[in-house]
Q: What sequence folds into this?
């Protein structure tokens, strides 16, 4: 921390103080007011579509000059339909059930005390993200919905786009009479600002949510002096049990691997029972190969199928995020569970089986954030779970696990009503 | 970390590996087995009462030789009734509802997926505590109940007592056929072991729970590289609203301050409405003075009552943990809320009022872990909340807040059942 420039410290201290002050107001704000703010922000995004796209052109030009990879450029790029989708996303968050103030539990004590557990906002959330400018709107919206104030720190590549989007979110806050400081964006790309956000703002920031690649997450995990809700790798497995329906197995494996290969819920390893290899392998392999997927198989698979290449030990621990799948033949469900427990990242795993006992065994014994029976791992997503949106998928077990939506951005307080009880 | 001795690192690595291995077994263990283990541990504590007391004598003698403060000696001291209470506590934890496997939410998606949220253990919990040997039994029991394995690190003063108690807990595990390593105690008082537990065991430990004084908590918060569920100060307030019933106000203030002054739920500051000063002050002050409490009042209180001494600004931020109370006269509920929001530690606050709107206002606007209406702050306790026992009271807002019992030592996983759904 000794290397952080004093002007950045001053800047960040100001942001922190304003965030904390706004949090106190937001925590007491009416749900209707937050709803109104979100709708107004969604309107503002649409109304300022041209300015957002113009700002995005600046970012894209700068990125091209820096020879950014095509996949990064694609994440950065906005067009009219993406701005519309962003606005629509904010509106969807507005329509979610308001989590703040929900009574999640209530009980009566023998001495007459009535105890309620009531949801409250966490307070101030710091979001550190990379090139996707839409996170500015998504994260701002989810935090506002859940009564939290947010300090946004986007990637330098998307700085102009994010700044313009941020302006629209603030316009929504203003329209609803909410404090502008409820959604702040750090107005500099200086890396010291991230350093201070992680290590110097314990008094202002309640939790940090990093959203990006491995390097970002690793830096946040190592430097943060406040709690982090983050996700590490998504090394997801599909296990085809001997009782699996062939068509389901084929369709789910294909979808889990190939629908989108670059997302954390994409399958990386296929485990298949020895007992159904003769009946099931051909259909699954044909579908994968036809879709352009490379198969890295163990010796049994390579013996069976000349299209497969030999897998290495390191493959079992590799999140490809590409059109590659590692395949292992297992003797039984125990060996499949053992493999996943050893090599998995605790994100998402699926079993394909018609035998309900096998499914229950798998769902019970494994401890990943999401376990699916006869469904694709690509359902690992807040929207698909019905949460409306997500700020990320947590692979840790503290606080939130799996998709992190508005509800997961809350804590709770206990409200206890008595009639003069004292403790004996 | 570079200063940690290699033999300690080896010791701790072994403990971590065994804890992780035991966690995998425990997570799949049947509730009945954990119940049996707890009952057997409770039996063992009773059966070995004499050995525990003999070990305690050693600790007490060493502490006396070191001139430990009487309050610390009292925390350290065991007698037959305290051992009985410890055994009884373990039995009570056994009788709690088992949180593991509980389905806390379930919903159906339009595509037919059925999503359940199911409680699971956190994994491995590290507990760092000080002189009270009974924490060995309490914490061990709560972790076992919730399916977690635990690494216990007690204070050096209570080492012999804790080691003997730990032996009884392990006997319970053995009797139930559970892995002995489910409850481990670090078999050395070397401080390097704490250092390594905090900073070097990210691969083995999921969360650290410190239980002790400010210095311990501060060290843990600053050095831990894994999540911490901790409690900072308990700077608790009682606010007497002008509508308060005089007897309730007197009884609750007296109890909140004086029942036990050394616990975190003890009140430190009394706020009283100017409008009821003439009617309510005398009764409250008489009760406090009679019980031996020093009153540090603001200028209005000192003017009114010659028994009060003048309060300093620093008093408003002081957790006395003694028979001292600071008293401020406030103009109205807004000023009371403002004072608590500024000076409180977010632990526990009470309002004494007959006016239900005033109570709702207070309970709604303040954001402490526990807010009480017409009841003593000394109810801030897992047992009093009906949780059976607690491992501590969390003042942070991430993961758990307020009393931390067996349920709060769990996370969840999502179990999703489909019929071959793929994502479009």
A:
């Amino acid at each position: 921390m000794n290397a952080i420039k004093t002007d950045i410290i001053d800047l960040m201290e100001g942001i922190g103080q304003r965030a904390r002050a706004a949090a106190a107001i937001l925590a007491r704000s009416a749900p209707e007011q937050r709803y109104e703010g979100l709708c107004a922000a969604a309107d503002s995004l649409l109304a300022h579509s041209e300015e957002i796209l113009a700002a995005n052109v600046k970012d894209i030009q700068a990125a091209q000059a820096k020879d950014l990879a095509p996949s990064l450029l694609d994440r950065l790029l906005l067009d009219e339909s993406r701005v519309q989708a962003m606005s629509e996303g904010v509106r969807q968050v507005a329509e979610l059930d308001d989590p703040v103030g929900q009574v999640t539990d209530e009980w009566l004590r023998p001495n007459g005390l009535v105890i309620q557990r009531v949801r409250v906002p966490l307070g101030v959330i710091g979001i550190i993200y990379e090139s996707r400018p839409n996170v500015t709107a998504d994260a701002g919206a989810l935090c506002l919905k859940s009564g939290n104030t947010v300090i946004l720190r986007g990637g330098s590549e998307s700085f102009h786009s994010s700044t313009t989007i941020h302006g629209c979110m603030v316009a929504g806050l203003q329209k609803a009479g909410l404090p502008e400081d409820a959604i702040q964006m750090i107005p500099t790309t200086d890396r010291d600002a991230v350093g201070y956000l992680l290590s110097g703002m314990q008094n202002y920031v309640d939790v940090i949510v990093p959203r990006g690649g491995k390097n970002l997450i690793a830096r946040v995990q190592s430097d943060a002096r406040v709690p982090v809700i983050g996700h590490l790798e998504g090394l997801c497995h599909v296990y085809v049990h001997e009782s699996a329906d062939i068509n389901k197995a084929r369709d789910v494996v294909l979808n889990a691997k190939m629908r989108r290969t670059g997302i954390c819920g994409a399958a990386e390893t296929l485990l298949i029972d020895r007992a159904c290899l003769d009946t099931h392998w051909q259909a699954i392999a044909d579908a994968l190969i036809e879709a352009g997927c490379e198969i890295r198989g163990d010796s049994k698979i390579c013996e069976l199928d000349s299209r497969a290449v030999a897998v290495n030990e390191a493959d079992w621990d590799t999140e490809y995020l590409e059109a590659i799948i590692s395949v292992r033949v297992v003797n039984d469900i125990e060996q499949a569970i053992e493999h996943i427990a050893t090599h998995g990242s605790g994100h998402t795993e699926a079993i394909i089986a018609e035998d309900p006992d096998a499914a229950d065994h798998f769902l019970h014994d494994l401890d990943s954030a999401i376990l699916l029976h006869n469904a694709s791992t690509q359902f690992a997503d807040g929207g698909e779970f019905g949460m409306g949106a997500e700020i990320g998928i947590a692979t840790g077990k503290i606080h939130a696990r799996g998709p992190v939506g508005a509800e997961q951005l809350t804590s709770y307080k206990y409200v206890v009503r008595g009639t003069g009880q004292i403790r004996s």
